[in-house]
């Protein structure tokens, strides 16, 4: 299979959306805005079929990532995410992934409101890998 991101052969991951034949390499997933869910079913989605956050909120012009303090995009996207509980904590995908990796499942929570139930579930759905340790 050819990777739809890089074009090289050997792509072993296929989008789990019925009827979608896009395949990609795991290392190409982030570059192609693909999402892999590290839940019991371990599903992967291409950028077209990847889950989107359903919370209806838009960042204000001055909003920054709560972790790195750098500006966020002007909308939710693959790169810019928001806490579905408090709706005030904006962060970059890479920043929250780093937070999840350091914290582990038992300590991972929203950096702003400290919710650890709805927030963690949303992050898992959005492809944030949270190690169990």
UniProtKB/TrEMBL annotation:
Keyword Metal-binding: yes
Classification via SUPFAM superfamilies: RING/U-box (SSF57850)
InterPro entries the record matches: EPHD (IPR034732), PHD-type_Zinc_Finger (IPR051188), Zinc_finger_PHD-type_CS (IPR019786), Znf_PHD (IPR001965), Znf_RING (IPR001841), Znf_RING/FYVE/PHD (IPR013083)
Keyword flag Cell division: no
Domain of life according to the entry: Eukaryota
First and last residue of the signal peptide: none
Keywords: Ligase, Metal-binding, Zinc, Zinc-finger
Ranges in a coiled coil: none
Residue stretches making up the RING-type domain: 65-114
Pfam family, any one: zf-HC5HC2H
Record GO cellular component, one term: nucleus
Domain PHD-type: 1-50
Gene Ontology molecular function: any one: zinc ion binding
Name of this protein: G2E3 ligase
């Amino acid at each position: 299979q050819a990777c739809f991101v890089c074009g090289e052969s050997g792509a072993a991951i296929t989008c789990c959306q019925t009827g979608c034949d896009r395949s990609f390499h795991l290392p190409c997933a982030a570059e192609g805005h693909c999402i892999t869910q590290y839940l019991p079913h371990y599903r992967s989605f291409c950028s077209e079929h990847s889950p989107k956050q359903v919370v209806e909120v838009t960042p204000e012009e001055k909003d920054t990532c709560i972790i790195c303090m750098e500006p966020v995009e002007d909308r939710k996207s693959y790169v810019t995410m928001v806490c579905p509980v408090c709706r005030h904590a904006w962060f970059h995908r890479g920043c929250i992934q780093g937070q999840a990796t350091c914290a582990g499942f038992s300590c991972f929570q929203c950096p702003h409101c400290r919710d650890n139930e709805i927030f963690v579930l949303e992050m898992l759905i959005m492809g944030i890998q949270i190690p169990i340790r």
